[in-house]
Design goal:
six-stranded mixed β-sheet
Length: 281
């Protein structure tokens, strides 16, 4: 059996509050191989926090604990910020939701992508520039030379997201975490960006974690789906078996999906049971 790229077991993220600790992520566990794993759930279910915890991006006073949190042969528990900086970009990377808040507004797009290459691969300026242009072309940006010198505010939403993907993949990481990478894009551009991600992940043999609240998108793109609610994983399904999901929350999400050609007298309401908040330990 192939060793997983990422192993997560008993992941917990806690924030202190006036009325006691708030558990944003509770005992989450999964493994990731060279596959496309979707994490789906409502806003506030802990999807993005799970991704940030893996990347070491949970800011104080938040606390990250885990029974096991391993990237290949590297134990991420207790890893220093300096240690995480060595891993981010080179072994694991994360595409955030909106490139406007992720790209440096006073540095050209090309320089930012090239800087990632120079930092992790110790390349010179010429090689980094050439690699950045090749990466911009790989994410299907026309006229890479022109876009290389543009600033983030000059890019459309779709181009900005492609530039972010280029910057995250230029150092050749084994794992890419994509946090709502298409939520700010129209449907046509969404499809294009997902196709680019799919092609790059398959051609490079990477592992992908796609975080989304869109179950239809995740089910049409990923190999497996983790359904989160209240900070914990309620169910894990192979995409091909999603229609046979057993948990009532997953069944409710599926029932709420629109169906072309199927008229409904009223929209189904998602029912929630307080018992789902019980610890799965």
């Amino acid at each position: 059996m192939t060793e997983p790229l990422l192993t997560v077991r008993g992941l917990r993220v806690t924030y202190p509050g006036i009325e006691g600790d708030f558990r944003a992520v509770r005992n989450v566990g999964f493994t990731l191989g060279r596959e496309r794993l979707g994490i789906v759930g409502e806003s506030g279910s802990g999807k993005s926090t799970t991704g940030r915890a893996i990347m070491g991006l949970v800011a104080a006073p938040g606390r990250v604990e885990a029974d096991e949190l391993r990237l290949g042969d590297t134990d991420l528990r207790g890893l220093s910020e300096r240690g995480f900086r060595k891993l981010r970009g080179k072994r694991i990377a994360m595409v955030l939701q909106d490139p406007k808040y992720s790209l440096d507004p006073v540095m050209s797009v090309g320089r930012q992508i090239a800087e990632t290459h120079r930092t992790h691969l110790r390349s010179n300026a010429r090689d980094a520039r050439r690699a950045a242009l090749e990466m911009l072309e790989a994410v299907q940006i026309r006229d890479p030379e022109r876009v290389y010198g543009m600033y983030p505010h000059q890019l459309s939403g779709g181009m900005g997201q492609r530039a972010m993907i280029a910057m995250m993949l230029i150092a050749g990481p084994d794992i890419l975490i994509a946090d709502e990478p298409t939520s700010a894009l129209d449907v046509t551009v969404q499809t294009q960006v997902l196709a680019i991600l799919d092609d790059l992940v398959r051609s490079r043999g990477m592992g992908l974690i796609l975080i989304s609240h869109n179950l239809h998108l995740v089910s049409s793109f990923c190999d497996r789906v983790l359904v989160m609610y209240g900070g914990q994983v309620l169910e894990t399904c192979e995409v091909g078996n999603l229609a046979a999901a057993k948990h009532p929350y997953t069944q409710g999400l599926l029932a709420a999906l629109p169906q072309l050609g199927h008229r409904r007298a009223e929209l189904p309401q998602l029912q929630r049971d307080p018992a789902w908040m019980a610890d799965l330990v």
